[in-house]
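I am writing to request your help with a piece of structural work I have in hand. I set the record out below, with my sincere thanks for your time.
___
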Amino acid sequence: MENKEIDWFDVEMKNLESNAGVSFERLPSISGKLEENKVNVVVIDASKPFEKWTDSSKQPVKVKAVIPCVFKGERCNWWLNTKNPVYKDVVHACRDAKDKASVIVKVMQTGSKENTKYIFIKE
């Protein structure tokens, strides 16, 4: 029993160390706010590089970008797995935008919780 507790603490310490330099603004998550199966307009602030959050407690290790945005007038963070194809679409949209502080993207969410999928709407 004691060995499992030590393993848990070791994993937690690795998480803390890998995320030591992360300093994103604590905002509500956009998850649960997007309207499912509808086109949602999200305004992303890409004026600074997105912070990354590493979760090494799961295998494979997951890295999420913490993307500051505004949805329906509320400032929030969009936690998006960097391996999600939509993340690549978001980065391209932000790179190509003229105003990096307010990049408008359209996404559709299907599913919820661990079954959440995003569809990037290209214009």
